[in-house]
User: Which sequence fits this backbone?
């Protein structure tokens, strides 16, 4: 049996003897779809080389969703350690205190012209936040290793919700770390 496209395109699909529809599909992460169809995927924060202090937890970025019509979903966090032996940690519900540099998120779909509705600060020697609840820790145990945290959009920030990424160096060194946070918006 065949089923024809109702729009008159002449496209057909078939039903197997086991009464299953035969399809060919393609699967992509939601961040791709949001970028392609809505122009709402962003590099939310990026830090090139931040020297961290031994035995101290340092804030690498702070992100606050300022949209009252969209959820900000965190998709991926990448933290690279150059000579590092410590932990990348993700916190939610923290409050920006001081320092850092304002960062403008970059849209992955350069043709959309959309801008992120977020306030973002990145470390430039120091960045201070208060409070927060830790939701994830990923270790960097050897030199020149990257901690990949793939959340697939499961960290969801509503209006005025916040998150930050911190790094705790546990060895006696003062390594450089780099950071990239990617995410997308979903309409409420």
Assistant:
């Amino acid at each position: 049996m065949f089923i024809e496209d109702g729009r008159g395109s002449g496209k057909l699909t078939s039903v197997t003897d086991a009464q299953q529809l035969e399809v060919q599909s393609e699967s992509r992460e939601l961040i791709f779809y949001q970028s392609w169809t809505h122009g709402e995927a962003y590099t939310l924060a990026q830090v090139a080389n931040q020297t961290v202090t031994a035995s101290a937890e340092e804030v690498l970025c702070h992100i606050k969703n300022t949209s009252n019509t969209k959820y900000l979903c965190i998709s991926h966090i990448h933290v690279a350690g150059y000579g590092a032996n410590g932990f990348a940690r993700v916190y939610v519900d923290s409050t920006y205190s001081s320092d850092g540099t304002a960062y403008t998120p970059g849209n992955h779909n350069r043709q959309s012209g959309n801008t992120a509705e977020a306030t973002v600060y990145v470390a430039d020697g120091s960045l201070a936040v208060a409070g927060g609840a830790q939701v994830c820790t990923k270790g960097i145990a050897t030199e020149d290793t990257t901690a990949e945290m793939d959340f697939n959009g499961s960290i969801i920030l509503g209006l005025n919700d916040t998150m930050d990424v911190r790094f705790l160096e546990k060895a006696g060194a003062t390594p450089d770390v780099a950071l990239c946070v990617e995410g997308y918006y979903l309409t409420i």
Notes: Residues 43 and 106 are 5 Å apart (CA to CA).
